[in-house]
Amino acid sequence: MNKYLARANQLVPELVENRRHFHRHPEVRNELFETVKYVKAQLEDMGYQVQEICQCGLVVLAGGKKPGKCILIRGDMDALPMPEDTGLEFSSENPGAMHACGHDLHMAMLLGAAKLLKEHEDEIEGTVKICFQPNEETFGGAKAMIEAGVLENPHVDAAFAIHVGSMADVGTLDYGKGLTMGSADGFSIHVKGKGCHGAAPNSGISPINIGVHIYLALQELLAREVNPAEQCTLTVGSMLFGDGATNVIPSEGVLNGTMRGFNAELINHLRQRVEEISVGTARVFGGDAEVEWLFSSPAMYCDPEFTDEVVRYAADVVGQDRMIPKKSRATGSEDFAYFGEKVPSQIFWLGAGVDDKTKRISNHNPKVLFSEDALPYGAAVYTQCAIEWLKEHK
Ligand SMILES: [Zn+2]
Ligand SMILES: [Zn+2]
Q1: Digit-coded pLDDT (tens) for 312-354
Q2: By CB neighbour count within 10 A (0-12 exposed, 13-18 middle, 19+ buried), where does 56 fall?
Q3: CATH of domain 3-180+299-392
Q4: How far is the CA of 210 from the centre of ligand 2 (A)?
Q5: Distance 269 CA to ligand 2 centre (A)
Q6: Looking at the CA of 163, which ligand is closest?
Q7: How remote is the CA of residue 370 from the centroid of ligand 2, in Å?
């Protein structure tokens, strides 16, 4: 058995305890104050000097005693703003927040890796930069860490992350090469009309009518203006108009949505079209609209050469038969893509499905379950990939 996996197996009680602590106390966005306090204390206990480089973003360095390159390993820490409905005895005690994307497991695995790396510090030929990132779900965290200089001092030569998946068997590693996950652009279209009594619609301008026409025109945008060979999607996730009255035409409302794709030039063009369609449609009916762009995250690029290397290292941990090349690109997004734009990167999807397949349900569902049996694999894969890559790139 791989020596890091053997050691990680001994650490299981600690990995599980940490994971359950995080699960019980989820925090969202970059307001992870209690989470960060806990992670920091654990890292300091291991002998690390912890640096907070942006709000709720932590970095520690392992190795650095022998000359060599620097590899960054990243785990994200934020939960989702949604209530939990798993029935687990360690369910969220923070109403309206839940670790439904498995970032609680990511933190436990990365803390496990931090411990393994400390125990094997003499073998590290270069430096491992261990990075605990806030705010992945709203695509702000990776960008904030990079802007705060996480890729320098020492300069990072490659970056590596793991995400758990609730649908795949424990210990499988799913990976892609090239563009593997879509870009994400979030928008709010603020529609302005003129409020009035529902009995006299002619005395006002209904923003609902405008909103519905904008909605339909946006669906036509993909159908009529995008080359069918392109992979791209536009979803309006909410339309908020009025306050429940039957006899009031409200004065304004909003459509919230997201666009995903793999072609940056096309996405830029579509952003412009979303604005033209929204404003133009609103004016046709005598109202107005304004498009607010909420976030923009690039498509995830996995460097093919770096991928071949980390796949080889990881296979030693989980077994070659559990390394699964992706069959297709996913339109889901990851803000680790910001790292992928700067340095050779890879993000593995580690299977963490529960044994009973009928209970498996996807990430972001209030009932999602993750198997804690995945934790030692994650800790060992992080460690193995970091140490082996540095050994081969002196
Ligand atoms: Zn997520
Ligand atoms: Zn996630």
Answers
A1: 999 999 999 999 998 888 888 999 999 999 999 999 999 999 9
A2: buried
A3: 3.40.630.10
A4: 35
A5: 28
A6: 2
A7: 13
Q: If you average pLDDT over residues 356-373, what whole number do you get?
A: 97
Per-residue model confidence as pLDDT tens digits over 78-118:
999 999 999 999 999 999 999 999 999 999 999 999 999 99
Rounded to an integer, the average pLDDT of 186-200 is 98
DSSP class of residue 154? T
Q: What's the 337 CA to ligand 1 centre distance in angstroms? A: 14
pLDDT, tens digit, 9 for 90 and up, residues 122-178: 999 999 999 999 999 999 999 999 999 999 999 999 999 999 999 999 999 999 999
Distance 46 CA to ligand 2 centre (A): 26
Kindly give the distance from the C-alpha atom of residue 11 to the centroid of ligand 1, in angstroms, as a whole number.
26
pLDDT at residue 302, as a whole number: 98
How far apart are the CA of 44 and the centre of ligand 1, in A? 28
Q: At what angle do helices 12-24 and 103-119 cross, to 10 degrees?
A: 140
Q: The domain at 183-297 falls in which architecture?
A: 2-Layer Sandwich (3.30)
Q: Where are the domains of the chain?
A: 3-180+299-392, 183-297
Burial class of 281 by CB neighbour count within 10 A (0 to 12, 13 to 18, 19+):
buried
* Residue 240 and residue 254 in contact, taking contact as beta carbons nearer than 8 Å: yes
Q: Give residue 100 CA to ligand 1 midpoint distance, Å.
A: 7
